């Protein structure tokens, strides 16, 4: 059984660091990604759900943030494989679920709707 509480706590902490403390903004995008990937890897000691960690749950605390985005789309980290990827579907992407990378989309047989 997944540890949902831990997953959402990590989501909330990353969101807080990003939105409230703004610690990520002074870093390069690659450094931002690697910190989040590192946190995900460390959290594997608990039975966490990567999809919940990279969800948009943390944005509900901040009115000014577009809740359509998730941590997966923000940091371009796939919620399925947990890896930083060149292309992660964003909320405006109609092809496959947001936060999913094209490799995982292909593996899971998401067909392009165009
Ligand atoms: Zn992936």
Provide a descriptive summary of the structure in words.
The protein has 114 residues and is an all-alpha fold. The chain has one domain (4-107). It has helices at 4-19, 29-42, 50-53, 71-75, 102-107. The radius of gyration is 14 Å and the shape is globular. The chain binds zinc ion. The site of zinc ion has 7 residues, from helix 5.
Shape: globular
- The assigned structural class equals mainly alpha
Rg on CA atoms, Å: 14 Å
Number of strands: 0
Number of helices: 5
Distance between the termini: 37 Å
Low-confidence stretches: none
Mean pLDDT: 88
Beta fraction:
under 5%
Bound molecules: zinc ion
Outline the biggest β-sheet: none
What are the secondary-structure elements, in order, as H or E?
A: HHHHH
Instruction: State the share of residues found in helices, binned by percent.
Output: 25-40%
Write down the domain tally. Answer: 1
Overview in brief:
With 114 residues, the chain is mostly helical. The protein has helices at residues 4-19, 29-42, 50-53, 71-75, 102-107.
What are the SSEs and their pairings?
Elements: H1 4-19, H2 29-42, H3 50-53, H4 71-75, H5 102-107
The structure holds zinc ion (ZN).
């Amino acid at each position: 059984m997944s540890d949902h509480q831990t997953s959402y706590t990590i989501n909330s902490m990353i969101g807080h660091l990003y939105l409230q403390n703004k610690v990520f903004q002074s870093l390069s995008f690659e450094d931002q990604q690697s910190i989040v990937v590192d946190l995900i890897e460390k959290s594997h000691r608990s039975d966490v759900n990567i999809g919940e960690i990279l969800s948009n749950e943390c944005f509900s605390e901040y009115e000014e943030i577009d809740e359509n985005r998730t941590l997966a789309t923000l940091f371009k980290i796939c919620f399925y494989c947990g890896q930083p990827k060149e292309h992660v579907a964003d909320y405006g992407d109609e092809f496959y679920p947001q936060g999913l990378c094209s490799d995982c989309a292909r593996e899971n047989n998401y067909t392009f709707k165009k």
